[in-house]
């Protein structure tokens, strides 16, 4: 998959912000969920979201979500 170029990353960020915040009379999506091994990037992205509240992060034990050994 590789590392995206700065332009591609910027475009993706802009698209995500438009989906979250809404644009040109189109409302933003009502609920945003983030699932990540590291939540810092998601939290930072949501800092700029308009009219949102943030609920506390939920930590899940990795052993509970990993596939069992075959």
Structure description:
The protein has 70 residues and is mainly α. Helix content is 34%, strand content 6%. It contains two helices and two strands. It has helices spanning 6-21, 40-47; strands at 22-23, 26-27. Strands 1-2 form a two-stranded antiparallel ribbon. A hairpin with a 2-residue loop joins strand 1 (22-23) and strand 2 (26-27). It is extended. The mean pLDDT is 79.
Descriptive terms for the model:
70 residues; mainly alpha
Which structural category fits the helices and strands? mainly alpha
Tell me roughly what share of residues is in helical segments: 25-40%
**Span between N and C termini?**
27 Å
Count of DSSP H/I helices: 2
Which percent band covers the strand fraction? Answer: 5-15%
What are the segments in which pLDDT stays under 50 over at least 5 consecutive residues? none
User: Number of DSSP strands?
Assistant: 2
Query: What form results from the Cα inertia axes?
Result: extended
Average pLDDT taken over every residue: 79
Return the string of H and E elements.
HEEH
Report the biggest beta sheet as strand number plus sense, adding barrel if it closes.
2 strands, antiparallel
Rg over alpha carbons: 16 Å
Strand arrangement across the biggest beta sheet = 1-2
């Amino acid at each position: 998959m590789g590392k995206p170029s700065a332009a591609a990353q910027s475009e993706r960020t802009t698209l995500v912000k438009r989906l979250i915040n809404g644009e040109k009379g189109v409302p933003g999506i009502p609920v945003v969920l983030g699932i990540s091994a590291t939540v810092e990037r998601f939290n930072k992205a949501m800092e700029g979201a308009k009219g949102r509240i943030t609920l506390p992060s939920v930590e899940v034990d990795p052993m509970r979500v990993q596939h069992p050994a075959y």
